[in-house]
Design a protein that fits this description.
4 copies of one chain form a homotetramer.
Chain A lengths: L5 H17 L4 H4 L1 E6 L4 H11 L4 E7 L8 H4 L16 H5 L4 E4 L5 H5 L2 H6 L1 E4 L9 H8 L12 E3 L2 H9 L3 E3 L3 H16 L8 E6 L14 H4 L4 E2 L8 H12 L6 E6 L6 E8 L6 H12 L5 E3 L17 E8 L4 E8 L3 H15 L16
Parallel strand pairs in A: 1-2, 1-3, 3-4, 4-6, 5-6, 7-9, 11-12
Antiparallel strand pairs in A: 7-10, 8-9, 10-13, 12-13
Helix pairs in contact in A: 3-14, 9-14, 10-12, 10-13
């Protein structure tokens, strides 16, 4: 739980790099070559922000079908004079020849339609879409109303929730990077689901997300004046992240889970907050619940178990890869109220993707992700 | 449910006024004299906005301890050149001699400390604080951590949820104007609680409120930079509106109710959204649930049962006295998801107070409240 | 400047209506029939909100090319159960046969392409676009990059800035409803321009607008996440409202005016703030400047000259037809700083359009517009 | 202007550190010990964020009078599990014995009351307040309405606008860290003022700031509901940053400057936008103006001269130390419109303070500040 002496570790890391350089290795050759397809969406450009601050990766391909041949920095002025590349196509085949790892931040169904075994042999793929997250292709097709074009690859994919699947991720060629809601929901509920102290049939997840989660597409419903000074639920009893959460939690508790998941659109750019409710087993105590979180996450850098009674706030994790979690036990009702806060485009998308890349390439999991959350 | 021909009704109403004038009655004498204590809080100034647009009431006392002798319009510039009065004290006794009705938008415990039977004989009182909302004084004292100084008056108070207690309100001298969360929660859940089709032991209310609900006090936690781009739960398992909601719903279903209520602070000025969950009785259908809402609210002007699958949005009720409700039945889990949206300082405070005044004085319940919600 | 005794005037007005009714006149026949083309834009739907609260007009046509045959309230949920009409086409010819007045809240160039003398003989037209605002068609075509298809009608149009052109408006068949920036800019600067106490060659207008001014079109630049937590200038030295402001101020001061106008996009829904700067003539005093505003607007209901040193805030006029203005004289630089705040879709568009309608039909100018600004 | 090959430089830098370590130097001993007084204000906590990501400095003192003995991370949850220190007093004397550099983010007048020559001999001081910014103490006292208690130290202070005073800063013991508005204003106008191509007597600065600029004090005017959906000017013709800007620009153009400066409060957390206007000398061209900016800032890492006609946006610099500037020449009026965007608490306060520290300690000026701005 203690996270000090970062600087010493940095130095050790640097020393290794230096020794490599001194021993004649080409530095440039050592950098991980990363390609991004969908670089001009919100998750894509966050990948850019994070990889630019990563010391062992470089971006070799800014793919964006809508902006081909336009300077990336003319779309995202924040990297003016930092990124000088122009946007390129979404040609996965060509990109596979140039990159060590490909990030796909693309619409549902796109990757499933173009990915092949051959590409996976050439380079690693981290998919930020939902195409390979759900093991049962029938469930995927039912919830997403899309025909899956490469079901045979699903079994090759590892669900990239790092804190849960760390070891499998290290060896993977294809990562199904988790959805934003599933990441925060699963991590907030996991310790109690795993320990069997809550009745999974009573589980309800009420989620709230900033508007970047709705993507950068030009839709009337996402205009400033439609979102600002407003709040609403959407996708009630039908949101496509539901089966993904159910699948992950079923692994935790060892049996199928059916739950309610209700997302809400919040007038803010970034951030997801999860409030989950479940009935506790008889005899459970607040201390016991708390201990389960500490045991689950004591060694985890990116999951912070807050002090008793402190409620997570999205502001405290903004721009970082942290997930803040906590649990409150309500004696009156016998329910646990589980809470989690996270930046939906960092840990909920691009940050976790980089964390996966770090694991896959044998780097310190935190490289490029030790960003202090920004306040206010 | 049909709400047309408003204009004709206006004319009839006007005709009555006119005939009164023609028959020699003093017009000015007919106006209801209203006094406000706590006029410079958010609920108080909303009372001012609404009463200024009310054709049969006038404000005779702008009480505000913090701004005594200052022009009210120097505090709230929106009424510059509309209100020329200066703020006066919170002397209830003196005010009772000048007003037909007193609105108290004051801190918890204030009114209980100064209200007397004599005052209630002189004039009517509509209390926007919680002092007389809970019938069991022990429950009040436990949740509010305040000693109640006039418990004998509690039984005289009518809980001013107009759609439920309309007839009692007409005859009341003291109204306990409902809390914002309890208004929206109770109205969103009432039809199913009343009909006995949900298991009240499974009821969970996840609530979201704009920041005006936190009041106008100068607290660091409510500064712009602390609230903006942020969301958090607060008062988890301990919020003081919990027993108020439980009491009202227990009247609906005929037995004690214990539930979870979790409020969240949202970066917007106005609006409350309620998302409530409960297990349905076996055999319940979506159509049946919907019909219960239509039966409960078909005749209600201020409660709008939305079209199937339409989720309430706070923007659609902003600045108005409407409560938009809807229910979705999730077949997978057998739960009803009940939703309600409302403006927390209109129907959730000042609007409902005016609605109560209208009932108490025999006016059209909608007088001064037929405001079209403002978009965007 | 005194605006009391509103209620008495209401009664007088009502008495007239009543006498008309008593004398056998059809009430329904007396209502002004209003048609709206472009009813589902932000200005169009604000017209709906205002006309619904207007006692002498009714909407007979909700024109919206994008939503033909859809219920208007399915687009704008705020009027659910209030408006039961479906959207109709933009057929001006057909509409002219049904309406007494047509409001066009349409893209630039649309009305100029379809309006005819014959239509204007059938009914009055209030155009919220810029097509007839600028008298010199060459200037219009240069700034708007559009060929004007009915230049002969320009001279028939009256520029509908009510406080300046009141008498001409009463007799007009075609109103060029002013732009939002020009309304606020002209009214904020007019008294000093008219009095000849500022050097018009030094005039600079720095303007800030809420995002509803950018319209309801689905553009990436107007998405919530692009506007929120951001501010930028746009249209610098090239914004199309520049010649409109210059033309109006040239009428005020009696000679051609060339000025700088710089608009900025602000993360809020509604509101325009103008900060204008000009060098004063020698010998000018702060008191003299103030007096000029009071003389110009003392009798105006909708223009409020604030107390000395009070800076206008858009919040104080939100949802209303008020324009708050003030001037500060900086002795150090000899400049007047002129300020104005207004709701861009009320007084800046729909509110002023209704004010124009009231004048054209001989009604009290304030009918339907006596809305108290909403706080917070 | 080209800013590539960052990573190579990082490695060189790391190599030096490594060689130092290899040669037996204590690493920990090499770290700059930094103390912060006022660590729980918005600028103070931003210093914490930046210094935590700085590889050659460590924070040894989190001073905060209001939170003494409380865990810093209990006030700013973003650094939970990152900072384990508790807040300490504002005892400058004691702190001077522990730190190499002291940052004071304190109210006006505080530092002037406690700073001594002796403290300055012990350690360096970077003052984020205004106490030592203005050379003429009479001007300071007139605008700030404060008696300056250590005027003798003013001459020792170097005005820490790094891009202008870089060399002087390197040798300074006391830095007057510039105000937020003055930093952005001066950098946006400097090239034209220096080149003598604008008439300084016509200079007008219209500024817009996010609300963090108003500080973290619990004032009603800065509550969420007062700021949100609102915009206003404040301090018109009287804001205390005026003389600071005038002084700096007078150095640039070589003679006294008197100008108008008007700040506005914007509903966003971070960001300052400057729009400045001045009459150009006859014969000036747009290309010439542009070239002056490029010459002035071509070598500057933190000042980015945008592409022609691109207007700066605060979002593009959020969380970073960049200042984006541009100029547009309006041929119609002969004026230059100069624009600048900056994060008010990074480059406008804490970022520039760290940049100053880097210069004073002989480090790469960009150390700890190469943060990519965060979007959205």
């Amino acid at each position: 739980m203690n996270k000090v002496s970062e600087k010493y570790e940095y130095l050790c890391r640097n020393m290794n790099i230096l020794l490599n350089i001194q021993s004649g290795m080409e530095d440039q050759g050592e950098m991980i070559k990363a390609g991004i397809i969908g670089a001009t969406g919100y998750a894509g450009q966050e990948l850019v922000r994070l990889l630019l601050q990563h010391r062992e990766a470089e971006i070799v391909w800014y793919g964006s079908r809508s902006y081909v041949d336009k300077a990336f920095s003319s779309v995202f002025g924040n990297v003016f004079e930092i990124v000088e590349d122009v946007c390129r196509s979404d040609d996965l085949q060509e990109l596979a020849g140039e990159a060590d790892v490909i990030f796909t931040a693309t619409p549902q169904g796109y990757l499933a339609g173009v990915l092949t075994k051959e590409i996976l042999e050439q380079c690693r793929v981290i998919d930020l879409s939902a195409d390979y997250r759900i093991k049962d292709v029938a469930v995927y097709e039912q919830w997403y109303k899309i025909h899956h074009e490469s079901p045979a690859l699903i079994e090759k994919a590892v669900y990239g929730l790092c804190e849960i699947n760390r070891e499998k991720i290290r060896g993977a060629r294809l990562i199904a990077n988790p959805g934003c809601y599933p990441t925060c929901s699963t991590l907030a509920i996991y310790p109690l689901a795993k320990a069997g102290v809550i009745d999974m049939d009573t589980l309800i997840i009420d989620a709230k997300s900033g508007t970047s989660g709705a993507g950068r597409g030009a839709k009337t419903a996402n205009l400033y004046c439609e979102v600002n000074e407003n709040i609403k639920a959407y996708g009630v009893a039908s949101h496509r992240h539901t089966p993904e959460i159910e699948e992950q939690l079923s692994y935790a508790c060892g049996r199928p889970v059916t739950l309610n998941f209700t997302p809400h659109l919040i007038p803010m750019n970034r951030g997801i907050l999860i409030t989950a409710y479940a009935k506790c087993s008889a005899g459970v105590t607040a201390e016991q619940l708390r201990r389960l979180y500490q045991e689950a996450y004591g060694e985890e850098y990116f999951v912070r178990v807050l002090e008793p009674d402190v409620c997570p706030e999205t502001k405290w994790v903004e721009g970082s890869n942290f997930v803040d979690v906590n649990v409150i036990y309500d004696e009156r009702t016998g329910r646990a109220i589980m809470m989690g806060a996270m930046d939906n485009i960092t840990k909920g998308a691009a940050g976790q993707a980089v964390q996966n890349m770090n694991l896959m390439f044998g780097l310190d999991e935190r490289e490029g992700l030790r960003l202090v959350p920004m306040v206010p």
